[in-house]
Amino acid sequence: MGTRRGLCSGFTCGVSAFEPELDALASETRFSGVIRVDRGDRVELAKAYGHAHRGSELPNELDTRFAIASGTKGLTALTVMTLVEDGTLHLTNTARSFLGSDLPEVGDDVTVEHLLSHRSGIGDYFDEESGADVTDYLMPVPVRELATTEQYVAVLDGHPTKFSPGERFAYCNSGYVVLALVAERAVGVPFHELVVQRVCAPAGMPDTAFLRSDELPGRTALGYLYADGLRTNVFHLPVRGSGDGGIYTTAADIRALWTALFAGRIVSTASVAEMVRPRSDASGPARRYGLGLWLHESRDTVILEGYDAGVSFRSTHDPHDDLTITVVSNWTDGAWPIARLLAEQLER
C-alpha cells in the first residue's frame, strides 16, 4: 500500500524539502490515491500510491480516475450557473416551478440560490448533521435503482423541512440533487450529459464523467471502506451519482477545472465572483461557503471536498498564486492526513 509512482519536478515553496515526510506519512497511514501540486504552468509534485484494485494488485497511477463524492457539488453549481448565464434559469427561480407536484415537502419559497448556498432548509436524505458514520449508512432503496436523476425522487421524498429558507447554513445533499432535477427539467437533457457539455468540455476534462459503480472501465479505482481488506463501497452508494456526488475524475482534470474556472472559460468572471462571494460562515474551522464552493476563512482560497464510504478528496486553489493542491484517495479516510500535511507546508 505504500508504493509510489510519479514525477516531482520544479520544486518551489519547499515541496522537495518535505517529500520524505510525505512519503513516510503515506506509508504510515496506508494512503492509497494520488497527490498533485500545481503552481502556474509547473507540476511541482505528482505521485500515486497504493492500489486501484487490491485483489488484482493493480496500482493507482497518476491518470487513475477516482470518485470524488461531494466534490461533484462544485460541478453541479457550475452547470446551474451556465444556465443562469444563458437565461434558462435565474437564482430567484423557485424549485417548485420545476418540481410540479413532486417532493411536496420542499417549500414553495425555496429558490435556486437557497439550494446552491445550502440555505434552503429542506430535509436531507443523507443528513450529515446526524453524525452517522459514512461506512454505516445504507441507501433506503436498492442502490441499483438510483441510476438516473429522476430515480432519486424516491429517496428525496418525505423529509420534513428543517427551517425557513435563508435562515441559516445547513449542508444538504438533497438540495444538490434537487438542483440536478431542476437543471435537467429546465433544458430536457439528462443531468449527467449536461455536466459534461457545460463544464467538462469547456474546461478540458476528458477523464471526468458519472460512471456506474457496477461497470467501472479501466483506469478507474474501486472505493474501499477501510485501509485494509477487499470490501468496497458498491452497496453503500447509488450505482450512479447525481448532483450531490458520484462523479469520477483525475487529479489532472481537477487542475484543469480550477484553471478554466478562474480564466472565465466555464462561466464569466462576474459569475465566478458571485460563486466565491460568501453566503455563510459555515460550521467548522476555516470554512465559509459561497455557491457550490467552500471558502477559506480569511484568504481567497477556494475548496472542493468530498467524503463518503470509500472516497476522500480535497482540492484547494489559490487564484492569486495559481496554486492547486489535490489529494484524492480510494479509501474512506485516506486523504485527510496527507491533505493536512500539505496544507501546513504549502497553504501559507
Would you give an account of this structure?
With 348 residues, this protein is of the alpha+beta class. It is built from ten helices and 13 strands. Strands 1-3-2-13-12-11-10-9 form an eight-stranded antiparallel beta sheet, with helices on both faces. β12 and β13 form a beta hairpin. α2 crosses α7 and α7 packs across α8. The protein is globular and about 55 Å long.
Task: Give me some keywords for this one.
globular, eight-stranded antiparallel beta sheet, alpha+beta, 10 helices, three-stranded antiparallel beta sheet, about 350 residues, 13 strands, about 30% helix
Biggest sheet strand order reads 1-3-2-13-12-11-10-9
> What structural class is derived from the secondary structure elements?
alpha+beta
Mean pLDDT: 93
N/C terminus separation: 30 Å
Helical content (DSSP H or I, runs of 4+): 25-40%
State the order of secondary-structure elements, H for helix, E for strand: EHEEEEEHHHHHHEEHHEEEEEH
Strands, count: 13
Identify the overall geometry. Answer: globular
What's the Cα radius of gyration? 19 Å
- Give the uncertain stretches in residue-range form: 7-13
Number of helices in the DSSP assignment: 10
Strand content: 15-25%
Question: What is the compact description of this entry?
Answer:
The protein is built from ten helices and 13 strands. The chain has 348 residues and is α+β, with helices and mostly antiparallel strands.
Provide the fold topology.
Layout: E1 4-7, H1 19-28, E2 33-39, E3 42-49, E4 51-53, E5 58-59, E6 66-67, H2 72-85, H3 96-99, H4 112-116, H5 153-156, H6 173-187, H7 191-203, E7 209-210, E8 247-249, H8 251-262, H9 269-275, E9 288-289, E10 294-295, E11 302-308, E12 311-318, E13 323-329, H10 335-346
